[in-house]
Amino acid sequence: MKTVFFDIDTQIDFLFPAGALYVPGSERLLPVISRLNRYAATHGIPVVSTTCAHAEDDAEFREWPPHCVYGTVGQQKPAATLLEKRSGIPNRSTEFGINGAEQIILEKQQLDLFSNPNIRALLDILEADRYVVYGVVTEYCVGLAAMGLLATGKPVTLITDAIETLKPEASARTLHEFTAHGGVLSTVHDVLHL
């Protein structure tokens, strides 16, 4: 069974207290995300790492404070979450290659990773039998990723101790909706010891 890991928006602006849109408590995820990504690399599991890549005047900034502006330090992924062999896919229709990449950095300008016009082609190339999702924020980008991947008809596992939330009640609703649609909740330990 071919698995693909989805590492959602683990970027400096979200994970660090000095970040432009810090998610309280998310810095605790750094060693967990690093462990998951490195496990994937050593087991031949592709990692798709989504990253917000906003323009300075992005429409999203009418709702959220400016964050993850393309080319800034805050937009980058922490070094601990990066794998050696990487490939990038911009948020515009383009030809792309992922040959030999352990980690695919998928840029997006909206909350939903399915807003990147290349995502369907990427999923076709990856030919996954199942998806494993983790990152930030549970009730926004993580939830949209998990539900979007479930809509492909493949099994999706969400790692509950590798996600963080802004609003616990909204997170609980997201997890309930996810499981009601057939998603599976798991832990880092269980995923890494299948």
Integer average pLDDT? 97
The total count of helices amounts to 6
What is the level 1 CATH name? Alpha Beta
CATH level-4 homologous superfamily = Isochorismatase-like
**Total number of beta strands:** 7
What is the level-2 CATH architecture name? 3-Layer(aba) Sandwich
Distance between the termini: 12 Å
User: What's the Cα radius of gyration?
Assistant: 15 Å
Helix content: 25-40%
CATH topology: Rossmann fold
Strand content: 15-25%
Biggest β-sheet, characterized?
Answer: 7 strands, parallel
Helical/strand content category: alpha/beta
Ranges where pLDDT stays below 50 over 5 or more residues in a row are: none
Order of strands side by side in the largest beta sheet? 3-4-2-1-5-6-7
Q: Could you say which overall geometry the principal axes of the C-alpha atoms support?
A: globular
Order of helices and strands: EHHEEEHEHEHEH
How many structurally independent domains?
Answer: 1
